Amino acid sequence: MEEDGIEEKEEIRDIALGSWRVQEVNNALKRTRAGKSGVDEFGPELLRADLEETAKRLTRCYNRL
Asked: Is residue 10 in a domain?
């Protein structure tokens, strides 16, 4: 099926991107700027309230995706 010049593929291939590490997520959380929030209204302050636990949980979530 082709719509607007974009052909749909029947199969999506797995792309090996590696996996996230807790330290990478932890570092990214530390670098977020205070006072900013996205469409979900979760600001960095909330995510950094328990930095270690948040990093562990987000890492598991990201690696599942």
From this structure: no
Contact 18, 55 (CB under 8 A): no
Total length of the chain: 65
- Over residues 34-43, the pLDDT tens digits come to 776 666 677 7
Domain that holds residue 41: 16-64
Report DSSP state, residue 34. T
Task: Name the one residue in this structure whose structure tokens are 């990093």.
Answer: 55
Helix H or strand E encompassing 3: strand 2-3
pLDDT less than 50: residues of the chain? none
7 domain residue, yes or no: no
